[in-house]
UniProtKB/TrEMBL annotation:
GO biological process, one term: DNA strand elongation involved in mitotic DNA replication
CDD domains according to UniProt: GINS_A_psf1, GINS_B_Psf1
GO CC, any one term: GINS complex
Residues in DNA replication complex GINS protein PSF1 C-terminal domain copies: 103-153
Homology family: Belongs to the GINS1/PSF1 family.
UniProtKB keywords: DNA replication, Nucleus
Gene: Gins1
Name by which UniProt lists this protein: DNA replication complex GINS protein PSF1
Pfam assignment, any one: Sld5
Subcellular location: Nucleus
Length: 154
């Protein structure tokens, strides 16, 4: 506002204010660039959260996000889901699995908390109770590992 007032005075003939006006304008542009860089970095981090945690974020992370950021996350999540359904035929292709190439198709996991029944492809249901260990297909339990339900035993 002060800069606008000085601009109107400079138009009326006060040329000594031109340097001050330019300085303020450069400061405003710098602040704008810094703010946009900060917001872009936050969006990149929110996008990375989708790949790391899946479609449901933990409450501790959502607590630190603004309403607009949660809305952007939900729109990104829906857009990614739509793309994954369109790529892989009838069932779609889950791009969030196998972020790192697997060394084996089955892994040994330990359950960190009570989860309940878990069904694998052959129709077998497994009861995931705290501290129980299982030998499961990697692609089936990778999401639960990211959510903190299971722990990969090396």
């Amino acid at each position: 506002e002060r800069n606008q007032a000085d601009v109107s005075e400079a138009k009326s003939g006060r040329t000594d204010l031109i340097f001050l006006i330019r300085y303020r304008h450069c400061c405003l542009l710098r602040n704008q660039r810094c703010l946009l860089a900060y917001l872009y970095d936050r969006l990149l981090r929110i996008r990375a959260l989708r790949w790391e945690y899946g479609s449901v974020l933990p409450n501790t992370i959502q607590f630190h996000m603004s309403a607009e950021e949660v809305q952007w996350f939900n729109r990104y999540k829906k857009s990614l889901a739509t793309y994954m359904k369109s790529v892989g035929g009838e069932e779609g292709l889950d791009l969030t699995q196998d972020i790192k190439p697997p060394k084996s198709l089955y892994i040994e996991v330990r359950c960190l908390r009570d989860y309940g029944e878990f069904e694998i492809d052959d129709g077998t249901t497994i009861l995931l109770k705290k501290n129980s260990q299982h030998f499961l297909p990697r692609w089936k339990c990778e999401q639960l590992i990211r959510q903190g339900v299971l722990e990969h035993i090396l």
